[in-house]
């Protein structure tokens, strides 16, 4: 169906960046020190992992302690619901025809899957998002009608698979003049309740490639993208128009150092491919951050499937939230500061948000007269 942009609603948005620190795991509590100090709901310090340094080192700047500021900082005691409370208004833009992207970024074992998928007692952002979308639709007292559909894919070793297909073949990315980057042949299922999406999410997650690595017992070896599309049909004086909003929820695979995971063979190759796409993502974040500070810079989206899929979320028509996940353990200092460095750069990224209107057949007939 042909689409047009709604020019009146076009606005610039800044990427919203939040940091979530998980608690020490039981294993870590025995061998690691907690080095994350959440100063307040916007500021966080990573303490020097070397405890031999004292006050004098600190004032003479000989310490590796680092401080950062973000839109939100969540301490280890915070639940996924606490995180969701602050992003819920953004997520609900999807019911008004806006595109929204939420992604978790962090090293292996830092809590990305926990944040996006969660557990029964602490549901993650994917589950909380689609529950509130359906609640919002139920509460809507206009005469608009809604159609919700969902797709779920993974990028594993630079190959795209449909997580909603039992034995999915390799899927290809295509550039569509109206819809931007699309995944050809990806199944999109119409859903009428949050429970149905939860069922699809669980089926998809059971098909996701996970492995036990030294760094995380159930490490995600693929990047997963759950996409929820809401088509809102509005009846007006001159026929009807359809607003189309899209919510992309992304759980990235963890970046890791081969030397730390003790992987070899296939696992090592997986790790290299995961790192390749995460490096491409980091390079895009770098370039986009520079672009907003110093003007135009080349952004290498085409270097990986992941960055092509995330292109809209990173600079195009999307309100975007990045949740940087970190571990509080002292032996993760380098991973943590690396994650926070990219999160800090991502704060500079701007997107350009506008509603997408689909021209309905009624309207086309009217305009064709
Ligand atoms: N907020 C939290 N509260 C309690 N446990 C948590 C929390 N966040 C993460 N964990 C635990 O930490 C471990 C690693 O988390 P998770 O699997 O989400 O990491 P990940 O970043 O997705 O890792 P990978 O990239 O390897 O897939 C899991 O055992 C998880 O249950």
From TrEMBL:
InterPro entries: Kinesin-like_fam, Kinesin_motor_CS, Kinesin_motor_dom, Kinesin_motor_dom_sf, P-loop_NTPase. PROSITE patterns: KINESIN_MOTOR_1, KINESIN_MOTOR_2. ATP binds at residues 106-113. GO terms for molecular function: ATP binding; microtubule binding; microtubule motor activity. Pfam families: Kinesin. The keyword ATP-binding applies. It comes from the Eukaryota. Residues 14-349 form the Kinesin motor domain. Gene3D superfamilies: Kinesin motor domain. GO terms for cellular component: microtubule. One of its GO terms (biological process) is microtubule-based movement. Keywords: ATP-binding, Coiled coil, Microtubule, Motor protein, Nucleotide-binding. PANTHER family: CENTROMERE PROTEIN E, KINESIN-LIKE PROTEIN. Belongs to the TRAFAC class myosin-kinesin ATPase superfamily. Kinesin family. KIN-8 subfamily. This is Kinesin-like protein. It comes from Triticum turgidum subsp. durum. The lineage of its organism: Eukaryota, Viridiplantae, Streptophyta, Embryophyta, Tracheophyta.
């Amino acid at each position: 169906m042909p689409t047009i942009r709604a020019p009146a609603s076009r606005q610039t948005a800044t990427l919203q960046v939040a940091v979530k620190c998980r608690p020490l795991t039981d294993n870590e509590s025995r061998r690691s020190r907690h080095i994350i100090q959440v100063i307040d709901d916007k500021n966080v310090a990573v303490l020097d992992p070397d405890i031999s340094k004292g006050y004098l080192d600190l004032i003479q700047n000989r310490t590796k302690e680092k401080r950062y500021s973000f839109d939100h900082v969540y301490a280890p005691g915070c639940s996924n619901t606490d995180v969701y409370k602050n992003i819920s208004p953004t997520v609900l833009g999807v019911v008004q025809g806006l595109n929204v992207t939420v992604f978790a970024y962090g090293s292996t074992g830092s809590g990305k899957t926990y944040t996006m998928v969660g557990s029964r007692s602490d549901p993650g952002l994917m589950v909380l998002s689609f529950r509130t979308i359906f609640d919002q639709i139920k509460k809507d007292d206009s005469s608009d009608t809604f159609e919700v559909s969902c797709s779920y894919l993974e990028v594993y070793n630079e190959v795209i698979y449909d997580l909603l297909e039992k034995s999915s073949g390799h899927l290809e990315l295509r550039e569509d003049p109206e819809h931007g980057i699309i995944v050809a042949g990806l199944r999109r299922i119409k859903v009428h309740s949050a429970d149905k999406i939860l069922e699809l999410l669980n089926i998809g997650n059971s098909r996701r490639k996970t492995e036990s690595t030294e760094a995380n017992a159930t490490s995600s070896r693929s990047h997963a993208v759950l996409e929820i599309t809401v088509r809102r049909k509005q009846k007006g004086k001159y026929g009807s128009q359809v607003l189309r909003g899209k919510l992309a929820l992304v759980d990235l695979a963890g970046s890791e150092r081969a030397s730390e995971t003790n992987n070899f063979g296939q696992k090592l190759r997986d790790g290299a491919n995961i790192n390749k796409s995460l490096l491409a993502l980091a390079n895009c974040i770098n370039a986009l951050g520079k672009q907003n500070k110093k003007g135009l810079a080349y952004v290498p989206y085409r270097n990986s499937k992941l960055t092509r899929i995330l292109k809209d979320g990173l600079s195009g028509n999307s309100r975007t939230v990045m949740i940087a996940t970190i571990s509080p353990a002292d032996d993760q200092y380098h991973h943590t500061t690396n994650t926070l460095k990219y999160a800090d750069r991502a704060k500079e990224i701007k997107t350009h948000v506008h509603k997408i209107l689909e021209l309905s057949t009624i309207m086309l007939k009217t305009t064709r007269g």
